[in-house]
């Protein structure tokens, strides 16, 4: 339970109406009810402020209402996310190391951690304060896990993986498995040992059943704030820049370099050794097979400039009509023999 | 071992030949042998009934043979599946709770269950009769698991997930991990807490290494009889209607609504907030980015009506020849200067 | 530590320079330093031999240098991989069976194995010498695991799976889950029991979070030397030929037959019952929906001959210009009424 005033202070906003209005939950516009705070970030919502059953509404700074208590903020969606966290994210309470877990003696484990049953921690591991390892997690030899990381059930870290602070890895995700490297010798595939590892920056979150392969040499790197969805594949030796967002089932091949703040939509893919700049957007199912400069939007298979891609797509869709038109017009031309 | 008569009664069919014919296995047409029952559902098979080594054959109602004992049924493939189950699916025998499992005291566990070693069951969980939890399964706080569910090794249920009766989850599948929701605040991605859960209806089966994300609010829902293959991604807030079938590696983005009896072929995908009707078929690798009405068949990237898509595809394939033809015909036209 | 001479003997090469040159690591060309061996397999590297800080360089047989000690070999990349293994792959040291593992009494386990905590081995399993089962591995009833296999954390083998020698399965991979087989009975999906299993040949390696489904009858088969990347789906009843390489997120539907030495690039897929010959290359994101003969290269959706596909793609990319050209030229033709 918070007052509207307390929430306004939490997100740096301004209360319009009674600052002591009590808020006990956060709910979407359509389903919010009494004592709920809701969000009206877009016109379609804030033009109907009187209709929501919510007790109060987060709105942009210039939006007003006749009766409804409002929380005016610069970035309504950001404020909504922050307040939702306030209500729903429980503070960490260390439960210690379960006697049903296996933790090697040769490890440095901070005092305030939670390690559940059936977790395996190999030798040489360092675990900082506030870390939660859920059941079935495997931490390989020599790994480092930063403050307040959460590794959900059945996550696997191979040897020597390094996680920054506040990294969240969802169930079934595998960090540091061997990169896919072979040399063909007359049909037979000779394995290239993958001697490197994976380094993951602060505040990275990775969805369920994703994979980040270890480097052949050195490290595969996810910079600070990278967010991967479920079923994402990151090949060996990749470097992914800060705050880049990668949606479900995307595949990034080996040795790809990606800049900051990029977005990869679902099922898109990048061929190996490609370099991608900052702020690039790759559309759904696109196949990037050459370098992309910063601030581009690309789509298609292979991916090209998205505006050109849309033009081509529109023409491709019209091909049946264009073909008919062309046939009609050719028939209307008196035929001439090719004189060669 | 069953007699043909017993099998006929099991599936509501009619025996042609000796009803006491003994059947000890079910096998495919090409490899069936003595005392085997096989299936001839299509002409290519039932026109060669004398050639199979099988002792008896399931056939459509109007198919006859000179010598071979037959089991005539209305739906031969359905009868085959039901009889194959009769021979191959062992009845559930409860083994109890392994002393090597961890089950929180504050749970309601039915008497006749099988909980294998290294299973973790958190507090507040309800498990009905006939449930099997294989090794490495994780059941989060407050989950409900209906009668006769089977959770194969290393399945993860996050907190508060609800499974109906007879749900089958194959290994590595993750139900209830966080939906992929962030708000960008000057590059930084602010997480939107995913406060909802997942509700899965009766008779749902999900393949290996699939993911169904929890809702931001409320529940992501898979209705009764939905079947997901391996590596399927279902985003947060989705509703999937009864008996819809989703083939391997399909990705359904957030807040998608899908009707009953749809089929999604491999590698297809749906963009967020799209609504899809009943009985829709989405072809291999298609990208659905707008609403689709019931009974449609769609294909392409983006997906359109499949018949139109096939026409376009045929023309695209002919482009090299059409281009040559066009070049030839243009050359045959006396060139005129553009007079503007 | 090895001398250059020892390494030359290991890979069948010839030393140019001091055979007693001591080598303590293997590193890439750009980052190699003192006492490192590196690789210069291509012109761009071996024309700059004097620039690397490496102590010695693996080169093709006809490449020379003024000062740098060289290891001349017929296949430089193969030699590099073999020498890298020599330095980086530790010999197997059996650690025995952890008291925290569960191994059924009715199993045949070789003496020299390593079975980590929280591994579950069901009854009737046979495990050969040199096998490592990492934490969280599940081995179903009746499985056979050949010599020197490594199953990384949280791998699942369903019942009766058979692995040859030196098979490597990375974390989260699932072998033998049910094939996706249903018969529709008025909307309701009736499951076809998957009564077969999976047989995996010697020297197969499978990446993380991949799935190979069990056959309906008989076995799904991966022949000797097959290499699958992460997130690969192999449907029921497939046969994959020797040394075929399948890159990340590829989906092979049920009952597909694939020959030897094929390569499937990322996100490609094959429809069910398709037959593919030997030495076939399937390009990124292609959708193979009919049989492909040996030695073909195919691409596109659906996949066709890659050269034709490239021609079509080039024309599709030029469509906006071709359309403008066509419009200009049609306008320049005196219009004629269609006289019908």
In brief, what are we looking at here?
The structure is a homotrimer of 340-residue chains. Chain A is 15% helix and 29% strand.
Identify the notable features of this structure and list them briefly.
homotrimer, 340 residues, alpha/beta, Udp-n-acetylmuramoylalanyl-d-glutamate--2,6- Diaminopimelate Ligase, Chain: A, domain 1, 2 domains, 12-stranded mixed β-sheet, 10-stranded parallel β-sheet, flat
Can you describe what's shown?
Three copies of one chain form a homotrimer. The first copy, chain A, is 15% helix and 29% strand. With 340 residues, the first copy, chain A, is an alpha/beta fold. In chain A, the strands form six sheets. In chain A, strands 8-11-14-17-20-25-28-31-34-37-39-40 form a twelve-stranded mixed β-sheet, with helices on one face. In chain A, strands 9-12-15-18-21-26-29-32-35-38 form a ten-stranded parallel β-sheet, with no helix packed on it. In chain A, a hairpin with a 2-residue loop joins strand 22 (182-185) and strand 23. Chain A folds into two domains: 2-88, MurE/MurF, N-terminal domain (Udp-n-acetylmuramoylalanyl-d-glutamate--2,6- Diaminopimelate Ligase, Chain: A, domain 1), CATH 3.40.1390.10; 96-304, Hexapeptide repeat proteins (UDP N-Acetylglucosamine Acyltransferase, domain 1, 3 Solenoid). The model of chain A has no long low-confidence stretch (mean pLDDT 94). Chains A and B meet through helix 3 and helix 4 of A and strand 22, strand 23 and helix 4 of B.
